[in-house]
Amino acid sequence: MRTDSETTRFNALLQENQLLLRKVAGMYAYTETDRLDLIQDISLQLWRAFPSYDSGRRFSTWMYRIALNVAISNLRGPGNPARRPASLESLPFEVVDPSEVGVEENDRVLLLRRFIADLDPLDRALLLLYLEETRHREIAEVLGISESNVSTKLMRLKRRLRTYIVANS
Amino acid sequence: MNPEMELEDLKGAWTTLGVQLQRQNALDLAQANDRRLRSVVRTLRPVVLGQVVQTIVAVVLMVWSAVFWVEHRSVLHLMLAGMIMQVYAVVVLVAGARTLTLIRRIDYAVPVMEIDATFERLRQWYRRSGMAVGLPWWLLWMPFMTMLFLGLFGVDMISESPSVLWIGTVVGTAGLVATWAFHRWAYHPDRPHLARRMSDSTAGRSIVRAQVIVDELATDEDTPKA
Question: Which residue of A has its CA nearest to B27?
Fold first, then answer.
């Protein structure tokens, strides 16, 4: 049985990191319904795991680990056709009004979304953490790999981006 | 597309995506809040209906009591019974009308914290007016039954059996005092949980449910967003 203060603390932390949840859901789900389902699944798992959260460590790191685990296992789990793109043109991070930036920036955002769509679930997690300026040590902690492995994988990801750009330009 | 683009260059695009996502998040939240506020209005419908019925009953009782005491001006206790019931009907009418006014005055366009405060006022008023309407029945049943018996059977209950009046007054007063003592005991600061349960049970289920929704919205609004 959880106490009221624990529930309040959890809700506050969840609200503070709502955007982080949205980003993870945006990475792995293609439709708004799937994104909301995924956010709900992640929130549930976070709540279940909350008693094991060590408050001496960063909440976002702990949250990323659980959120990415849930998102990846949901993607890999059987009977989840809804998690796949609705069509071949579907891209992650569908937003309501992307028009408020310049053409060049829009192109860059589109490239990023296409590149994400091209990646496997683990590389998406790596890219997300990299783009969020997460330190290598924390990326290693979240993904459960060594720091040197993180560097190697990031090098490969950079190479892959170059190949992707050349192939698509 | 610039073939020289590096992973580092995508960070700008990621920031833009984050801003767009945040905007969408705020939009979704505003829509969800709007839906929840509409559900508050729906939740309050039974209260509105109940208060409308209460107001109609009060008007009928007021007219009946007025006609009764005017017709029986020559008999003191019958005139008093009619007058007491008329005063009571006015209290019931005012209570119902004020509750309806408080519900109508809830402005769902103002910040949720203000709606929350309005709800707390509504809840307090509903609880107090409920007590003002309900508790007097420890004694009010006597003038009411006097009017009813005379109206239906032509029997003056008080004249036929005057003991009803004094036994009823003693029992009713004891009941009122006991209820008052129980309330004081239940609402003592040493028993906050019992006080809350009592407050919830007397505030009306619909109002409590609606306030829970508004409280959730207020908590959401009060929590800093990413």
Answer: A96
